[in-house]
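Good morning,

Attaching, inline, the backbone tokens for the sequence recovery test we're adding to the shared suite. The designed sequence is right after.
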């Protein structure tokens, strides 16, 4: 498991972003009242641990907190204005932050439109993907990426491990990296995961369904201990963490609608098997 670095008071960097400035001002006004985090927690009905993370700029404030803070400290919209800016910022070091959140999740839900997501990739599929996307990379750089990818997958069989659900668009199953042999073994791995890992749920969204509300890149939804929900959207070369409650709730609803429309798990396994069996022989196409 990764270790989340929690800054001390003198480590706050309010000039770094609106999120950091929000946290610095929250600590400043709290300490001016001689309140501990427990004291503030009772007044705003937000847990001590969550307030600590807000002060350290590692979590977005819940949308209803800024107005309560302005009222509590007698301010004319200071926290509300900072929140409106902070909610539109990309989180600094977000790829590191993304991995830390994934490691802490008790429930992981994903949707993939083009590529088998990293947590379910075979080693040879992952290597072929990295070579395709990083065609100028050295063998050492590819090995480093691959080692990181495989290391991430260990969380799915840790003890305890998160509940994992994935909806795969049919295009994921039709597009190969490295040829039909690699894709065949990747599909076999997906089938094995679906049949032998009770905590895994794999569904397929067939072309026959038509358009849906998550067409595009990759979406990951994480439920953390305590019930907080965080979303992550990934495009070709960039990813965006979404922590605003309203935005994340929208992604959760879209995913739930998608999962309800996708093939059920058993039919999805049958579909995976049919695609795998229809692939040309890699030696005799």
């Amino acid at each position: 498991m990764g270790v989340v670095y929690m800054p001390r008071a003198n480590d706050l960097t309010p000039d770094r972003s609106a999120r950091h400035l929000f946290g610095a001002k929250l600590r400043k006004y709290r300490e001016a009242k001689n309140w501990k985090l427990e004291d503030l927690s009772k007044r705003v009905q937000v847990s001590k641990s969550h307030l600590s993370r807000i002060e350290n700029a590692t979590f977005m404030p819940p949308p209803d907190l800024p107005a309560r803070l302005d009222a509590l400290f007698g301010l004319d919209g200071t926290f509300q204005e900072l929140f409106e800016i902070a909610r539109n910022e990309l989180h600094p070091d977000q790829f590191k932050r993304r991995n830390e959140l994934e490691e802490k999740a008790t429930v992981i839900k994903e949707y993939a439109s083009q590529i088998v997501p990293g947590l379910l990739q075979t080693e040879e599929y992952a290597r072929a993907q990295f070579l395709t996307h990083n065609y100028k990379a050295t063998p050492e750089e590819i090995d480093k990426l691959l080692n990181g990818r495989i290391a991430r997958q260990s969380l799915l069989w840790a003890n305890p491990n998160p509940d994992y659900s994935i909806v795969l668009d049919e295009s994921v199953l039709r597009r190969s990296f490295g040829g039909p042999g690699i894709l065949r073994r990747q599909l076999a791995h997906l089938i094995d995961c679906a049949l032998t890992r009770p905590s895994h749920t794999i569904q397929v969204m067939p072309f026959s369904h038509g358009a849906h509300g998550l067409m595009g890149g990759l979406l990951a939804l994480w439920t953390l201990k305590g019930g907080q929900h965080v979303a992550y959207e990934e495009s070709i070369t960039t990813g965006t963490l979404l922590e605003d409650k309203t935005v994340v709730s929208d992604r959760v609803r879209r995913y739930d609608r998608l999962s309800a429309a996708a093939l059920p798990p058993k039919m999805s396994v049958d579909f995976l098997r049919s695609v795998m069996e229809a692939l040309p022989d890699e030696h005799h196409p």
